[in-house]
Amino acid sequence: MRAINPRGLRHTGRAALGAAVVAVLGMSGSVQAQSGLSINSGEVTYADHVAQIITDNCVVCHREGGIGPMQLTNYEQIRPWAPLIGVRVANKEMPPYSYDDHIGIQELQGDWRLTEEEISTITQWVAQGAPEGDWGDRSHPVADLPDTDEWNFADQFGQPTLILDSEPIDVPAIGNDMWHRPYVYTGLTTDRCIKAIQVKPAGNAKSVVHHANSDVEIMNADGEYEDYGQLTEYAMGKWGEIMPEGVCRTLPANARIRWDIHLFPGGVGATAPGTVIEDNVVEIGIWLHPEGYENVAKYKQDLKLYRLDEGELIVPPHGTAMTQGFHSFDHPVRIDSFQPHGHLRMRAASLEIYYPATGRTEQISQISNWSATWHHSHLYEPDVAPLVPTGAVLVIKQWYDNTANNPNNPDPDFWVVAGSRTADEMTHAWIAITHLDDAGYAEILAQREAAKQRSVAGQ
């Protein structure tokens, strides 16, 4: 889940407008035609209209030391990339937040998407030749951003209460996928509730860490460690998670963390260094609620992997595939976040709720241009987070494209099967769920209905 904007802006630390340094081939066509937006008669300039949009939404990654492949902090840096920026923005490929408009829930915390007005402004500017305009006595806006190695939630919550480092490991420049599974002890002597959590590969490790999952283990009566549950999940591009108020994701006392770090020599994505990364370390930063919060939190929350086992995951050369999964609960729940997961051939995902009592299916989220280089945990705003009654069914679907039309596909001649390698595929989703009881479910429904009535009365 993306950090709430530390600068108080609507968009949170958005990622770059250019996913890779690529040759701008075939870009001479009209950006206006690609965007479907009309050009108005007024002049759109960088100084008057575009600079603030790019500063607010792109510089977080496109700056010195950032993960973007070029810097976009001033007009001189941006002007050569204007045609590519226009195309990427018009196609809603950048900022890299693939979440479909006008389908399902649109109220998300940490939403990176540009507004239609911002998209129109940029495409008009590019179509008019990307003029700089007159700054007058103004100066270029400067992004108020933390250091590139800072924790994403530091401005909101300060430094993490607890930082857990993996054991260092060298990652070669070339070679096969690697897995690193060390243990680390938390040192906590009492149960605590997690407020927020972030996994942070250090330095250049960002581009060689495919994923870094972490599980909690506790000691049983026989003195042996056993699984307690998931701590968190990290995949390329994910910024972290923030827990809703009033719920507790528990980090138990005297626990140890079992890492499962998947490393890809050379790296994946536009900023892959292609060099040896020595002493690769992945960190978990955990912000904890004060002691005693577990006594006032009404409900428990957990993050789990929900598999999509219906449909065999074999994608033939130049072919496609689709999988789906069905999950229900014997108690009511609230869905707090949804994060589909796959590798290079996965292209789309959706989340639906089926209500057996009525036969109705409700679409919650659709991601139609998914990319393995940007894993997003879509965090629903608390007042619209889906409520699922007892017996209703979560329906999760994912689609795979092994053709040359998939820009992420390294080899459409390759047979793709389920597996852990980067060249294989996976078919599951990470979902954070608050577990309710009947009274809590009814209370939240009543609160939402009352808010709706107040909104209607105020119109």
What does this 3D model show about the protein?
With 459 residues, the protein is an alpha+beta fold. It has three domains: 1-144, no CATH class; 154-295, Jelly Rolls (Sandwich); 299-443, Jelly Rolls (Sandwich), CATH 2.60.120.230. The protein is 15% helix and 31% strand. The strands form five sheets. Strands 1, 2, 6, 9, 10, 13, 14, 17, 20, 21 and 24 form an eleven-stranded mixed β-sheet that branches. Strands 4, 5, 7, 8 and 11 form a five-stranded antiparallel β-sheet that branches. Strands 16-22-18-19 form a four-stranded antiparallel β-sheet, with no helix packed on it. Helix 2 packs across helix 5 (116-127) and helix 4 packs antiparallel against helix 5. The radius of gyration is 23 Å and the shape is globular.
Brief characterization of the structure:
The protein has 459 residues and is of the alpha+beta class. Helix content is 15%, strand content 31%. α2 packs across α5 and α4 packs antiparallel against α5.
